[in-house]
């Protein structure tokens, strides 16, 4: 149900109300008949993309108001107080859909933001969120212990014992909105699940626990276009009581931008690049071992393209489109170089090491894509990269005795994953972050501090099934077709040299009498010229007398 802003909004504790706000007419939100055992009321309002102003007074001041899409205020109740009032309005000239709720807490419940020293409000229960294309940063003010009405609040710096706020614990929760859904009503219905303590525990994903010794800020990997809600529950272990901060949401993108907004995140250059890669990958998935040079080109393209993109991103300030074009050129050169190396050197082991390394990188990335990647020990870059490299190198080492099996597995798995990356350019899927998070960690020195949890919903299960089906089909088809064939084609350069020597010494071989290349080209051009020559008119023809 909607409240259409006649100026007064009557609320009940613990009940959500949807309200349409505008810039000119503030809404007065009132709660009456508050029970005497309630000591604190946290009032909060949420909108999808337009900022809302919430304040204690009709004329907001910096120390008595908050502005944002997810904002709340703490009302510390005085003895005999049974009514609370707040004021709401939007900063947008048009009407803004929002949802509001007030949540009561008792004297033993901790007070979120009660020991704020950083932000403007004296007691600040808000979570402050910033995002980039790489990571999301949330921070909040420390909480204080609860106390009775009319009493002085406990000191925030009186000591660090069990009778002070230092005993409090902070549980950080994450909740994913449905994929590919940016509607306001979906956000309003789901943010309710992350506003109260019991509902947060039932629906959210607990990411970590902070003590008072830890800094009250956390980093997460950014998921542009995917709605995410964060909240923090502060817990008092002595009284076993809890309270929730104000939930905050983000899509890690802008609704207002004309280009690269939340509805169209993938650039045209990205779509072209990965669509072309997917076509080559699909061919390699089913025919990679039979068309050995194409397989080498595909793997060389990926290997050299990845490292070249990392290099130019690290050392230059070129735009994304320019870097992607240069990466494609470098990938083509790398693929041709690997093909040329095989033609000239004929070393199966060298080529299979590169191919195994590509498969190993994908396998290792998949391992760290699981919850294992969020273990605190892997926050250390040295530990992470040593472990990652060891897992990646394990693949070519394990298959060193059966290179054909390794090549078929690599072409099937890597080729089918190229199709998944192309799908991710058009439809959101978390599977793209298997490799994207690795790229972020290589390019950004501080990405190691970010938690990389991603949603895994119906869309992801369908696309995962497509990946598995393609990989299994490609590997099976190649294994059945190649079981009676030689493991690898013969060394092309040595074969060519032997054939040339045979033709030059064996005069009985018809190929020995093949004219030189220059003469053959000349004869072919004469033949083409005769084809286009006008036919002579019919008439009497006298045979030549010899």
Automatic annotation (TrEMBL):
Main subcellular location: membrane
Membrane topology of this protein: Multi-pass membrane protein
Span of domain TM7S3/TM198-like: 275-479
Cellular component annotations (GO), alphabetically ordered: plasma membrane
One GO BP annotation of this record: negative regulation of programmed cell death
UniProt keyword terms in alphabetical order: Membrane, Transmembrane, Transmembrane helix
The keyword Transmembrane helix belongs to this UniProt entry's keyword annotation: yes
Membrane-crossing residue ranges in chain numbering: 272-289, 296-316, 322-343, 350-370, 382-402, 414-436, 461-479
InterPro entries, sorted: TM7S3/TM198-like_dom, TM7SF3
Cellular compartment(s): Membrane
Record carries keyword Iron-sulfur: no
Protein name in UniProt: Transmembrane 7 superfamily member 3
Organism per entry: Aptenodytes patagonicus (King penguin)
